[in-house]
Amino acid sequence: MKARDLMGRGIVGGPARQRGREEQHGMPIKNGLVVAEDSVVVDGLVPQFRSFLGFLAAVFQTLFGFSMVITSGLDGVHAYNSLHKVGRAVDIRTKDLTPVEQVVLMCIVAYLSGKTAIAAFDERNVAPGQHLHLEWHGA
Question: Partner of 132 for a Cys bridge, out of 18, 92, 99, 114, CB 3.0 to 4.6 A?
């Protein structure tokens, strides 16, 4: 099978699940990133962090067969010292992934955190929604 044959199929989960694609139909795209709704703010992200997210989104699409969704950027209610407010943190939705796919994503992000200025926090059990919190700690 050629690499182009894998695009859109989801390497980890087999053929792309319609569930993920149906939920993403009509989702806004801002600054090249898929966001959960119009109120999600990604303009103002640190440029290096934005570049990393674009790379991660491409890996996500290749592996799982649908787009990575950002559920929070500079918007929303966060802790007092949150890096969301300064464009250095986002939340990535995980509910569209199977438990195995969630582990794969976590392993990829953990590996990349050793190579980049990324910190990740597993907040799949934090209300209101399952997500992975990513922070940029670079210059």
Answer: 92
